[in-house]
Write a structure and sequence with these properties.
By secondary structure, the protein is mostly helical. The protein has 25 helices and no strands. It has 2 domains: 1-202, Up-down Bundle (Growth Hormone, Chain: A), CATH 1.20.1250.20; 251-474, Growth Hormone, Chain: A.
Length: 482
């Protein structure tokens, strides 16, 4: 039985997947409205910076240089990296729900600074503050959704975070491309406010409430999430048992993260974040307009970015439908393999273009290749490496280190994003676009090997089962201890 990672009591008692799912879907969607706000923040630069750096721009009463524009675009990464670690401590102190509601304040303040900015400094400050709020949501929302969900739908609910991110980016591409900057900013300001109003009525994480000794509130939250006909006692007793075990074996963060299971979870979380940001997704997005043009498409760059946004949303939505059927591991492996092949193909195209010129016969004969590779790359990323690394950070860790690991992994992710974004153009100029894409392809090949040998399948597994898969011992319930 130990090999299965479950206790005897768990084998004979119901697993608790009979409750209503709709309240959990609604709570997860409400929580990830914060991710929608973060997505609009991420997509804001694409339509807006083209307008602001134009010498004839009248959207603000001051001019914005290209260098200043680069800082305005990328500063959100530093804001997100700045907050990821402390927000983990905050959400362990005041709760997942209260933390996310609190984030409405910096999100709104940041957008107001951007909307009514009178200088480049105000725009940079506003973007930094919205980056802080967006980065905090990247830690709190996945933790919340993983803790409110039953095992059978945990993957689906976890993928809603990335789905909302992509919808927010698409919103920015569409609305930002066809409205004034002022109107776009006002609409972006409204999103976190709407989130706060809706999420106010959602329950707190039952796991957090039990950890704080609020058992009656935890029971009420479970009933709200599972339905009034659901017998919550078994699940509540499991949460109490885990909380008591955690209290009895309470150790410092340093000691907790030195356990075998914790170290392996940290390794996997950090590695997936590394491979996500070094996959070349930013390079593909940066080259999207050129790729569309090289393929003979005569559509404007605004339309091409919208097409990319639509592809991301559709593929991420498909991922949310299949992640609890196919599993996380197979989607990550498929994602890494397809992205490796597509990056290789893009590298070949850009290398030939650089070597022989755009008008060479060999280049003209494969003008279809970059567009096909671009589309498949984005689909593969959205199916696997887009949503799953954030999801795994919430699934692999026990509640005593979940906030710490999720927050530090988030910090690592945003710092990598800033590094890749700020150095891509220099790297491209130094070694050539083709070689850059081959570098990304090799990284994804390493990622494929890592996933194949190290990353476990967590589909439908309980927290205890996942810990056993990471090398821990199965916990025994009190009635089993003789």
């Amino acid at each position: 039985m130990a090999d299965m990672g479950v206790s005897q009591a768990e084998l004979v008692e119901p697993r608790g997947d009979s409750g209503r799912k709709l309240p959990q879907y609604l709570a997860a969607l409400a929580a990830t409205l914060g991710a929608l706000a973060a997505g609009s923040m991420l997509g804001w630069s694409a339509p807006v910076m083209v307008k602001l750096t134009n010498a004839s721009s009248t959207d603000y009463d001051f001019s914005v240089s290209q260098t200043q524009g680069d800082w305005i675009s990328s500063i959100i990464n530093l804001g997100a990296a700045f907050i990821c670690f402390p927000i983990g401590l905050v959400m362990d102190r005041i709760g997942r729900k209260n933390t996310m509601l609190l984030l409405v304040v910096p999100f709104t303040l940041g957008w107001l600074l951007i909307t009514f900015g009178t200088s480049v400094g105000m725009l940079i400050a506003g973007r930094f503050i919205t980056g802080v709020a967006g980065g905090a949501f990247c830690v709190t929302a996945p933790a919340y959704t993983s803790e409110i969900a039953q095992d059978s739908i945990r993957g689906t609910l976890g993928s809603y975070f990335q789905l909302m991110i992509t919808i927010g980016i698409l919103f920015a591409y569409v609305v930002g491309g066809y409205t004034s900057v002022f109107v776009f900013n006002i609409l972006c300001t409204c999103i976190p406010i709407v989130f706060g109003i809706i999420f106010f009525f959602m329950p707190e994480s039952p796991s957090f409430l039990v950890m704080k000794g609020k058992h009656e509130e935890a029971k009420d939250a479970l009933i709200r999430l599972r339905g009034s006909a659901y017998d919550v006692d078994y699940e509540l007793n499991n949460l109490k048992f885990k909380a008591e075990e955690s209290q009895r074996n309470q150790v410092s963060y340093l000691a907790a993260i030195r356990k075998k299971t914790a170290l392996k979870a940290i390794l996997i979380c950090y590695a997936l974040m590394l491979f996500q940001q070094l996959s070349g997704i930013n390079a593909v997005i940066f080259n999207a307009s050129q790729i569309f043009a090289d393929a003979g498409a005569t559509i404007p760059s605004t339309i091409s970015t919208i097409i990319i946004g639509v592809i991301q949303v559709i593929a991420t939505f498909i991922s949310s439908l299949v992640v609890d059927k196919l599993g996380r591991r197979i989607l990550l492996l498929l994602s890494a393999l397809v992205m490796c092949v597509c990056s290789t193909a893009l590298g070949v195209y850009f290398f030939l273009q650089q070597t022989h010129g755009n008008s060479a016969d060999i280049v003209q004969a494969i003008t279809w290749l970059p567009l096909v590779s671009l589309s498949l790359f984005i689909i593969a990323f959205s199916l696997g490496f887009g949503p799953i690394p954030w999801m795994m950070a919430g699934e692999l860790c026990q509640i005593d280190i979940k906030a710490f690991v999720g927050s530090t992994a988030g910090t690592f992710n945003w710092l990598l994003s800033f590094t890749v974004t700020s150095t891509f153009n220099s790297l491209n100029a130094a070694i050539g676009a083709g070689q850059v894409f081959w570098l990304f392809a090799s990284i994804m090949l390493v990622g494929f090997v890592f996933i194949f040998f190290v990353v476990p399948e967590t589909k439908g597994k309980s927290v205890d089962e996942i810990q056993v898969m990471l090398g821990g011992r199965p916990q025994q319930r009190p009635e089993e201890k003789k």
